[in-house]
Amino acid sequence: MDIQFLPGVGPKRASLLKKELAVDTIGGLLRLYPFRYIDRSSFVRICEARPDMAYVQIKARVLRTDIIEKKRLSVWVSDGSGDLELVFFKGIKWTYEKLKPGSEFIFFGKPTAFNGRINMIHPEVDTVQDSAAAGSPSMTGVYPSTEKLKNGGITGKVMNRLMEAALEKGLPYIEESMPEHLMRQCGLVPLHFALRNIHFPMDMSSLEKARYRLKFEELFYLQLSLLKQKYVRSRAEQGIRMSLVGSAFNACYDSLPFPLTGAQKRVITEIRNDMKSGHQMNRLLQGDVGSGKTMVAVLTALIAVGNGYQACIMAPTEVLAQQHYKNIQKFLAPTGVKSALLTGSSKTSERKEVHSGLEDGSIGIIVGTHALIEDNVVFRNLGLAIIDEQHRFGVEQRSRLWRKASCGAPPHVLVMTATPIPRTLAMTLYGDLDVSVIDELPPGRKPVQTIHATEGKRPALYKFLRDQIALGRQVFIVYPLINETEKLDYQSLEAGAEEIMQKFPFPQYKTAVVHGKQQNDVKKFNMDAFAAGRADILVATSVIEVGVDVPNASVMVIESAERFGLSQLHQLRGRVGRGCEKSYCVLMTGPKMSKESRHRIELMCATENGFELAEEDMKMRGPGDLEGTQQSGLPISLNIASLAKDGIILNTARDWADSVLKDDPTLTADKNQLLRKELRKEKYQIKDYSKIS
Ligand code: ADP
Ligand code: MG
After folding, report:
1. What is the mean pLDDT of residues 561-573?
2. Best mutation site among 253, 255, 256, 258 for ligand 1, i.e. most ligand atoms within 8 A of its Cβ?
3. Where are the beta strands (DSSP E) in 530-661?
4. Which ligand does the CA of 575 lie closest to?
5. Residue 636 above 90 pLDDT?
6. DSSP 366-379
7. Region of poorest pLDDT, from 293-307, 343-357, 585-599, 631-645
């Protein structure tokens, strides 16, 4: 039913609700849940109000009211414990007349600090009688709001009234959205009960039941949708059956300079089982920086080659592609498999050669960047695509790779990421992918000591760097480059590099500088100088060189560390501690930091576990902002459930979704018709990730 039919909503409010909250029906309004509740039965004393409190309610008498320069109404109130100034910029006249000195009101707002005192801007005002009359439920929902909504007269109070009307008018028309049998088995309250109590809780326990039911429903359908796609695909899509291990794999394996870790072995077994199953592999490989994913990639590629197919390894940047290519040469040497590199800066003649090698099949493994998915690249028989650091590839690019399939069945896909994604998020983002985790670092890794320092410590830092260099170690100094086009960032990098070269003068010290604005060959020259040990210090921006492997580097200095996200800091730190020397990560920050930045820096100093950091990151920022997911975004927007906090409900919901689909993969049984119908709702239409990665 159109929201306009709701008493209290005219065309103006209707269009506001639609614009600001995307609500255009009464049913839609009812599915907009409070994100908090206020206990309207309790009051905060003025002397106890603090700026770090959320919204509070006070009961106070008006002392005096002043209109200042016709622009601002200042109202002083007192509740006996102290005085408080309330400030109004709008509705001045009306409020001035309402708030007669001497009378008592209930004010509801957020305490803020101003000039060393506490005040309250634009509190909601209730008379004591009104508030008593509204009385019964003591918990009042607080709804998402915007400046425009408030200006349009849709305040918190109005919202509560609209919800009341919506329940009365709309609820009878709302049909139950969970099937009877699941409600019973999963202990869910009916939808009508849930909607009533989520908006106007009868008591705490009813609110809990309502919440559980609504969260469960949301997560259940999300998982059902993802898993259904997976079931359908694994039945329909044929994969290339790669039943051999192959001699190339064995040749490489037998000459490895180190034994594989248990986790590497386990993951390779999982991959091998996928590849020989006759179904297409769609696997996400997660592993912390330095966990040895490259090794797994090489062995996986060799399985494809051993079965007569080609494999490609795609990296997000030129430097990473080069590094991969270089790294895998030593592992490929004993196998005799021909490999090649193709990037944007490959020369035309090289390019031609590579193109023909791919077309006639003489190249078994190709490493490259986006250049690999250009239309003129033709494979003879691409059987496997390995995508490193997938979050930097756009959706479109991945689907182009997919279309390179030339042998009837789509290539197997292995997506590797070093951004540890919390399990709950992985289940949602990649609900239809299988996930492998390398949860063990190669032996002999030394923990990296992480230190936080501010500007005053810089001389001490430089001395420390000199000492390390004197011991034969190398040093990274990284500047933030959040936005590649941002001038300021380059300026700080250039100024920083200059200072380093002054403080560490040539020829005693050798400094290489690398950033995205350099020509590719300059970049490569400088990188190689550092990798080969000809430079002691590498000054670089964060975006480009994250993947470099220089075991002799023992110190990572991160400038303006407060500007980096947790997972990026962690990635950068993973560049050191790869050799046998004790390694350090120094986080340089300004003296003033936001609460979140400080928390990030403290976490970095406290733990080296990437998954722990990722969980914390998600709790702090919410999953939508989690690094590595901004581009893909969540495939669904959640109304009430939180991936960060509702992991347990998510797991339960997923198990139920799975068990429903095990019995009835196409949801054709009578009792599952409601599920089918709900899944068709736009909300649960999730992009098919398997097709794009
Ligand atoms: P990732 O790509 O996961 O960050 P890499 O594959 O670059 O990690 O591996 C990091 C380093 O560890 C490399 O120098 C690699 O040769 C080495 N390495 C990989 N696997 C092992 C292992 N099982 N034992 C010892 N060293 C290993
Ligand atoms: Mg790597």
Report:
1. 86
2. 258
3. 537-541, 553-558, 583-589
4. 1
5. no
6. EEESGGGGSTT---
7. 631-645
